[in-house]
Amino acid sequence: MTAHGLPCWYELSTADGGLADAGDFYAALLGWRIADSGMEGFAYRLARLGDRMAAGLMEMPDMPPAWTIYLEVSDADATCGLTAETGGTVLREPAEIPDTGRFAILADPQGAVFAILEPTPSEDPQPGAFDMQTPGMANWNELMTTDPEAALAFYGRIFGWQPGEAIDMAEEGTYRIFTHEGADTGGMMGLMGMPRPFWMPYFGHAAIARAAEHARELGGQVVHGPQEVPGGMHVVMIRDPQGAHFGLVGPKGD
Question: Check: CATH 3.10.180.10 for 7-119?
Fold first, then answer.
């Protein structure tokens, strides 16, 4: 299986002065262990679940708090070029992350921001942060957009994603699942009342009903759900105390 187009990393940009509080919130909710990355001159924290890296956290005072999904690519420069040719925007040209690889920040034609990472070749590659089987890791990737069909065509050309099942969600519209090399990876839908297109990660949790209440106790806001979805799992959308949106997916767990 090729990794080009597979989600590989999740990064929280949070409010100025809110890094410690954001780390405490997610550590309590998801069982992460948060520690400084050791990057000289830059406060970047790494979230680990056991011995696995789950996400990165940093402060971005000049932008609203948000999660960014990184997609692995085989060639960052070529992906940026194809993105621009296909109607997307290169917001930050490829740059080097020491001992990690080359990254860039992009936006699709509808304006949803995402990132790419061309990993540094390694004899011992580490597993990515996308793991649909493990609570506490990213389990799903969801795009809310003004034009799901156009978005699916865009990402299909850039990353080779294919359309999966289309689910009628009644007044919420059609939910379009996309696949990476035959495996369900995420879904696309309308804006659901949100002000702009954006990508949102879902992290696994063993008890969604309890997690929703726990998020409230920690200062978060439940925006939608808990709701049962096809397949018997439950989801909930949450706004963290600094304002970033994310979701949780798993059994209801009353």
Answer: yes
Q: Where are the domains of the chain?
A: 7-119
Report the amino acid identity of residue 239: R
Check: pTM over 0.85? Answer yes or no.
yes
Query: Which residue ranges in the chain fall short of pLDDT 50?
Result: 1
